[in-house]
Amino acid sequence: MTSQIFREYPASALAPIHASLRRIAGAVSWTVAFGVLLAIGGSIYSVMMPRTISSFIGLGDACTPQNIAMNGVRLRLFFAFLPGLVLFGVIAVQVRALFRRFSLGVILDQGNARRLSTIGWLIIAGGAISMLERTLLALALTFGNPEGQRQLLISLSTTDVIIVLFGLFVLAFAHVIGEGARIADENRGFV
After folding, report:
1. Which of 128, 96, 117 is nearest to 168 (CA)?
2. What gap in Å lies between CA 100 and CA 94, rounded to an integer?
3. What is the tens place of the pLDDT at every residue in 9-65?
């Protein structure tokens, strides 16, 4: 299938572009599937082994409950992980759908621009959820502790800032794709 954007070019000239985009779309599909499995598997492992998360977020073993029942820690951890998992799943579906359109030859299109814009905003939200998630994890781990042993963790890392910057980059790229699609539509109108 040839995109409307490339009608003026012979199909043989576009074949390498479409083949390349199909390969990239295939790689994106595999990467998305691997990422979803990794996110779900890592979350399940962390919920089942809560002490591993303590050192990861900087609390240490002293703050983690030591009794076998753990007083609902696993359930609280599940709810702490849930917003990030849901957001990651939504981003994964959007990215896969966008690259599927690319593989079909739909490049400069207003639909792609809207989808990219959505992805950009979701990535920015991911930066905020990343910060919030560490706080929720610390609360989930220490909420059942006696007074004086509960921990409130508020942290900001350069990774959070990089995530937000990447989201802003995707928003800018969405604007570029939208403008390109608008110009291509105008050019088709003149022909």
Report:
1. 117
2. 10
3. 445 545 677 788 889 999 999 999 999 999 999 999 988 888 777 777 766 665 555
Residue pair 28/131 in contact (Cβ under 8 Å)? The answer is no
Using the structure block, give the residue that is written with the tokens 């499995």.
37
Q: How far is the C-alpha of 75 from the C-alpha of 79, rounded, in Å?
A: 6
How many angstroms separate the Cα of 130 from the Cα of each of 42, 44, 52, 84, 123?
15, 18, 18, 7, 10
**Amino acid type, 134:** R
Using CA atoms, how far apart are residues 155 and 167, in angstroms rounded to an integer?
Answer: 20
Q: How far is CA 150 from the centre of its chain?
A: 31
pLDDT above 90 covers a percentage of the chain that reads 49
120 neighbors 177 (Cβ within 8 angstroms): no
Task: Name the packing angle between helices 110-142 and 73-103 (round to 10°).
Answer: 170
Percent of the chain as helix, strand, coil, to the nearest 5: 80, 0, 20
- Which residue reads 């390349």 in tokens? 20
